[in-house]
Write a structure and sequence with these properties.
The chain is of the alpha+beta class. The protein has two helices and 32 strands. The relative contact order is 0.08.
Amino acid sequence: MGLSRPRCRHWRELVLLASLLACGTRQAYSQISIDPESLLGIKGFRTVLVLQNVTQDVQEYSWHRGANDTAENMIVSYKPPSNTWQSGPMFSGRENVTRTGSLVIRRSALNDTGNYTARVDFGNRTEKATGYLSIQELEKKPDIWANASSVVEYMDPVAAICYTNATNVNWYVDYTRVSSNDRMTISPDLKTLIIHRVSRYDRTLQCETESIPEFPQRSEPLSLSVDYGPDKVQLRTSHIILNGILSAKIGSEVHMECDAISRPSPKYHWTHNGSLVSLSGAKIILPSLSWKQMGRYRCIVENPMTQLTMYREFQIQVHRSEHSHVVNRGFYISGAKVVWLIVITALSGIYLCGILIYILISHFSTRRQRGT
């Protein structure tokens, strides 16, 4: 009896060790499963039922339609060792098994919805996994409507409506996703967008629905015609303008051109010294600058749609080098001639003074002779 206790204790240790080894062996194998995220398919698209927790020692993969893995329900099977595929009674011609055991269904149809069972034969054991595949049909693209298609920048609002039964709606302005801010508002049901102050960059409007994750449906772009400007009025001339003054020589050719950013194209008007010039258009050419054409010029840019008017002005003056050459508006004399004129005038004055002195001396001499 005294020897039985150590033997019993030894036996219990062996049993415990065996159970631990058996438990470790069971934990080394994780049960196969079908990825839940792959159990959603879209009509007309490819669906892939992905197997998880599959080891390398697979002898055969087989997929079955329904919750049972019977031969009558088999769709297709694949044996990695021999690299062979075999179709079953439920094969429709659109299914295939990948080398990793996943089931591929091409051009998924609504009647593909249902249970699918995967059976994996590891040689020494067989595991099964069943999942329910749901094939859904994408909603058609939503329609979009706006209360106006032609507006004026910063003056007119625009309200757009997205016609859809979806509850998840996103809005895009000029292909950029937008949210409610100080310039636009999206309604609580997400189906109406109001732009309070339209910008020239609000060229297109779109709404997007996402009833099925990762499969958004976006409406056709709705174009907006936004009138704006005139902005950035610029003046280009054939001469340099400094501090609003254009210096040019009499008789020279002067080109003047006005430009602005505007939609639609603006109208241009020119004034000279406050009077409207008969010439219209963005360009004016003075072939031979005259004295009458001197003075202040103003280019007026007008957008009849936005009812905005801008202008730029400058003054044409005679070139500085000509000021010293001018005697009057009809007569010119060069600098060298001016010097000669001064010399001649001085000599003439000396000559006249000499004659005057001579006459005076002669007069007094004659009187003195008469008195003696």
